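URGENT: need a sanity check before tomorrow's submission.

F., can you look over the Helix-turn-helix domain-containing protein record below? I want to be sure the sequence and structure line up before it goes out.
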Amino acid sequence: MIRNIPDIRKNFTPLQPFAGQYGEGVCYNELFPHHDLSGLIYCYWELKTIAPLKTLFQYKVVADACTDIFFETENPEQLFVMGFSTGYTEFPLGYRFRYMGIRFLPSVFPLLFRVDGQELAGKVTVLGDVLPGIFKSLVQYMPETASFTEYACFFDARFREITTGLMPAIDGRFFNALDIILRKRGGLRLQDELDTGISPRQLRRLFGFYMGSTPKAFSKVVRFQYGLQTGLARSVGEDPMFFYDAGYYDQSHFIREFRQMYGCTPADVMKEK
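Structure tokens as predicted:
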């Protein structure tokens, strides 16, 4: 277990709102990691078809500030990594599939493996191009028929092995700023409230490495995620002024950012639910 890493999970829950809501034929599951890894990995996830689909399946991922490793179990040698994004992403997965993923909490992937977050942000990258060797044997010995629980146990063992004795450089200035943003739920005036003893330029450099983006962009995603977790999107009709409390300038500002990160408007989400 790696010590001295702030407990990000305490103030932040990365939500993918379609979890468990895909309808007939598609199943989504999550499992939490071993407690030694709970400050590093939010969850392991599985997305699979129960039976072949009649129409092409589009998988939507909303902005959650995390970094994910994922692969299809039929092609375990092809691992991919997706970094920080300020927008939603859609993947056409076909008619039959089974995907597994590992969702790292914000900033953890660059911290553990010294990979510049800016190299991963806003795109999907072949993992072997980023970390040749480290994940070479991550899943290649797992049979395609292994259960999700068996995969999760294997991931636990592999990442506990990787992190044992690992002593990453913990930059307290960055994590102090990260903690402030999370506690403020992304709704803060950066220049006035994000004083961690370093210049804005230095702070942007640190966020560029650990997050792949700026403090402002990270705050936007945190604010959006907080809205999802607390059901603010469902409150639009009940309290049309709630967006002020959530840190938005006005309703159009809220709807614009929501659409960018979710892929549709709050009203559309209300109809879906």
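My own read: The two ends are 40 Å apart (CA to CA). The chain has two domains: 8-163, 172-272. If you see anything odd, call me.
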